[in-house]
Design a protein that fits this description.
137 residues, alpha+beta, globular
């Protein structure tokens, strides 16, 4: 009887593994969500300029449409958060790309694991800033 129980247990484990494998293969993995708090650096790429390297905090929230987000951008000055502004953005799940257009340039971000990396390019395509942040837990 004990041998029969072992065979049944092995068969059950094998069936569970096959089911889990086929369930994972049925659909693509969900795109990572940019929603949350991100902390890191925003570094100037044009020198000399009035631009300053900053430690930043981005609070990303979803707006009405599924692809619409806003970034409440802040910088750390003397240990305190200071408002920089709010960006309206679009999120494209394929590639986990976030694009925020404003009159003086375009911010583009990509999610790579628990990192949000990006850049600000001016209308003439000059790279003005590089951003590297990590999800804050």
């Amino acid at each position: 009887m004990s041998r029969l129980m072992n065979v049944v247990a092995v068969a059950a484990v094998a069936a569970a593994c096959l089911l889990a494998r086929s369930a994972g293969a049925q659909g693509p993995a969900a795109a990572p969500s940019p929603v949350g708090v991100w902390r890191g650096t925003s570094l100037c790429r044009v020198r000399p300029s009035p631009c300053k390297d900053e430690i930043v905090v981005y609070r990303i929230t979803r707006i009405n449409a599924s692809d619409s987000l806003k970034i409440d951008a802040r910088k750390i000055v003397n240990g305190q958060e200071e408002e920089m502004g709010v960006l309206d953005c679009r999120f494209a799940a394929p590639g986990a790309q976030l694009t925020c257009t404003m009159p003086n340039g375009v911010w583009r971000f990509a999610i790579r694991g628990d990192s949000l990396v990006g850049e600000l390019r001016l209308p003439d395509n000059t790279k003005f800033r590089d951003v590297s942040t990590a999800r804050s837990h």
